[in-house]
Every structure is written in C-alpha cells, then in structure tokens.
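Teaching assistant's notes for section 4

Start the section by putting this record on the projector. Ask students to predict, before seeing the second block, whether ABC transporter ATP-binding protein will look compact or extended. Collect guesses on the board.
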Amino acid sequence: MSSHSSELTDHQVIADTLLSIECLRVTFPGNDMPAVRDVSLRISKGEVVALVGESGSGKSVTAKAAMRLIEFGGGRITGGHAWLENGAGLQVDLFAQSEAAMQKIRGNRIAMIFQEPMTSLNPVLTVGFQLFEAVQRHQNVGHAEAERICLEALEQVSLSEPKRRLRQYPHELSGGMRQRVMIAMALACKPDLLIADEPTTALDVTVQAEILALLKKIQRDTGMAILFITHDMGVVAEIADRVQVMLRGEVVEEGDVHTVFSTPRHDYTRLLLDAAPKLGSAPASKNKTKETTTPALSVQNLVVRYPLSGGFFGRVRANVHAVEDVSFDVARGETLALVGESGCGKSSLAKAILRLSEPTSGRILLDGANFLEFDHQEMMRARGGIQMIFQDPFASLNPRKRVADIIAEPLEIHRIGSKAEIAARVAALIERVGLPPEAADRFPHEFSGGQRQRVCIARAVALNPSVIIADEPVSALDVSIQGQILNLIAELKAEFNVAILFISHDMAVVEKVSDRIAVMYEGELIEIGPRDAILRAPAHPYTKRLLDAVPIAHPDQRRDRKLIAREIASPIRSVGAEPVPFTMDEITPGHFLRRSLHA
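Reveal the predicted structure now:
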C-alpha cells in the first residue's frame, strides 16, 4: 500500500455514491488464500446496505479494510481501492491516506459500532467521560459544548434520563442501553456513514427490535448511510435497501432487498433464507396426553435472592430478587422452553437447579427426590442425572484435552464402565452426534462452532441423564448450523427419553424445539402452556411484546415499529420487601396465566 497522503483524486463521484469499494483483496500472514478476494461494494448517500454471510465469509474484514482498521489486526490490503466522497463531488482514495488522515476520517465521516457493547466500552470510565473523549477528539469544542453534544446524542438514541447516564459506568446499564450509548458515541460527530457490525446479535429479541427501529429512525432523520453487517436474514428484511451476500471471501449475490428475497439466484443465498428461523413455520403440535408418571424435573415455589451488604458492619441492606416463587414440571421426553429477556432470571434459575448457587427457598425434585436436601455424596451421584449444554461451546470445552477425553470425563468421574467400555461408549457417541471417528483425537480449536457444540452434546448425554439444561445452545452459531443442532437435540431427546429445559430468547428457535413454553419477566413466571397456545394465543402483554419483536423474514411484510425508551425495573429491593401475592389461572387446558392478587 502507498503511504502518501494526497487527500483527493480526480476520480468523479458516480451519481450519489458515498463509498465505493473496488476489487478489494485482503490477506493475513500465514494464509495463502486471501481472506477477501476481488470484493466490490457501493453505498449511496442515505442508503442502508446489508452485507450478509456466516462466520469467516469476510464481511467484517471488508468493513475494517474500508476504515483501514484491518492493518491493526495483522491484515494487509493487497489490492483494490476504496473511494469516499468528500462532500465536494470528488473522491478520496482511503487506501492512499496516511494514518493521520484516516484518524480525521474515522468518527467524523465514517463511524463504527460493534457486536458486543460491553467489550467496546471501557468498564472503569463513566459513559460521560467516554462520550466527551469521542467528541473532543474529533471536534474543537469546549467542555460545555461537548456536554451539550453528548446529551443531544443520548436523546437522539432515546436513552432515558440522559444526564444521569453520563455519570454511570457501563456495568450499570443493560445490554440494550450500552448499545444505545455506542450508537450515540458514533452519531455524536454526525458521520455520513455508520458501519454496524452485528450490532444486535448479542441482544434479546425485544431489544434488537428497539435498536433496529432506532437505526431506521436516525437514518430517516439524518440521511446517514448505513452498512449493516449481519448473518440474520430476518434483520436484513427489517432494515436493508440493498443486500450483498458473501461466501468464503467473495460476493456471490447482490441486489435490491425485495428482489434478493423473492428471487434469490445463488444456492447459498437460498440456503441462508431457508435456514433463517421463521415464527409460524413449525407445524401445529399434536396434543399429548398428560404424563401421570413422576416428572424428571419439578421446580416448586423456587425463590433465589442475592443479599447486598454495606455499611460499617457489613449488614444486608437489600436483596436482588432474581427468581420469585417459580414452579413448573418437565417430563421425560419433553422440551420446556424458558424464554425472557436478559436479567429476567433465566440463568439464576438454571444455576439454582444445578446447585451452582443455593436457592433462598423452595424445592427442586429430580426424579422425585429433593435435590436440595442431598448431602455432598448424594449430590455428586445425582449430578450425573442432570447435565448442561452451554451457549459458547468453545468456552465450555477444555482446550488442552482431546475430544475423546472430554466426552469420557463424566464417565470416568462417575466410574461407569471399564476403560474398554468407556472407549466404546465414546466412539459410539462421536458417531451418534454426526462427527467423524478421527474427531476423537483432535482438540476443540480444530473444529467449527457447530462441531464443538456437537462435542458438548455428546458429553451431556454420555451418562444417560434424566434432565438436560440447554442454555442458549445455538445463539452463538451460524444460522445454517442452528437447524442441524436443534434437529440433533430433538433426536437425542426422543432417543434417550430425556427431559430438556431449553433456555432461549429467540422465539422462532423456541417454536422449532419446544413442546411447552414458560415465559419469565422480572424474576417471575408470568405464563406457561403448550407451545401453540403460547405462540398463537398469548395472554400476557409481555408475551405479546416478545412475539411482536420477532423479525419477519421478508421485506414485503416489513413493519414500522414504534421507538420506545423503556426502563428496566431494578430487581433490588429493600430487606423485608415481598412480591404481590398471585395465582396461576388456567385459561385454556394446560395454559396458565399469572394474576396478581391486589389487597
């Protein structure tokens, strides 16, 4: 790459083009094959372009190359041009700019927001300090003017109580609030182009809907262009004007969003569209007769509260009410989906069931025996009957162990079988989850995300457990892999006659996998019933909001969502504060709705 810093070229802007990437090639050391090959991309002023593809397709590499950030990650631009319109009808060749010139362009002309706002914000600095820094780096303004710009940006993203947010730290905000702060930071200098790299992937479906509505409103109000990077075709249908589909470093299809969705030409585009979970696509479930046998898992009046201490004597000053009086059963051969937003108590409930945290009160029955009354030895034996599949398969596998040893570990801990019997069991499980025999001798880093999750599933069923808790088991996977893993879980549920508690925030995934659905909100179980009853006739306003937030995977059915600044209720309550008494009323057979009993 040239290091000269000429600001302009005589290259004329074509119509209203803002950014034009031509024949981009990017390589990384040690790889013969370029990560991006001959990619061209055009974004007009005020246009929303979606760059779509799965992990490793080259979408993020393309965006980072345009901002010249790829060089900080070890990548090298080995071909092509990126032309940015300079506001006077001429184009700047971004690949010919010095780093000093690029620093002026980043933030001012082109801004970027990332997938995980918590890792993008400094945890030890206030929101206000980080916003001020972004503004003052790019604009020659004093403190008072910087504060006005920051408050205006926070108001623009519909963040409640913007003055108070400036004094808060990132950990004091919800995921949706943090992402709004990141968007405000990007918008503070009024860029012409916003690059949004998977900005909603880590968010709950209701928060995702809010962020998409926010970006659409800002784009309409300001005329800003957006390059939206995603693997979710439902999100593309909600927001994009045009689409470019990437596969293995190349653009395989591009066009108007309506044309691409209605008449996709490339097989890979069709695969992405077919694989996208669509609410309402699952066939109606047959009504099963009620189980008369003992449930595999029975949670009864479970309460989980975490004390908050303070003061000179360390007294308990308040409690975090994580789970409040929750009851449900899961039968063998059944999948109960537990749904709700981050902070609703799903994970606290799962930890209590596994006794990774001790409940405040209530009972947890595993095959009829109270799990909470077990001593250490009884609990160790019982743990074989309840297993877990985690959200991030790579984080839940020991990177220093081979796959055969990972799957064998629970069998060895519980002393089930001889060495030869364990080896035979491991080989059978590896085959059963769809991995090749040679996978036994490989390490986790040698597999894709979907293959690693198959290893986790094999480990979970190794002991023939009564109950499996699957905590967001497909949310970290590409959409084409999600369906395969969900099908595998369903097959193993029937084959091993296991009860599955499936924790998720994705209603389209839940529809595909569940027999019954339980909805949690602010630590309380507010609605539970058969899958079709919850999805077709939701009774609680929050359940309706969850379903309304699911993206419709076709642009012809795009909805104009209302933008609402929503406060998340704090789960912290004073000592002695008790929730309002309630009943669970059966509104149709097996479909229960929580109703408060007001004094």
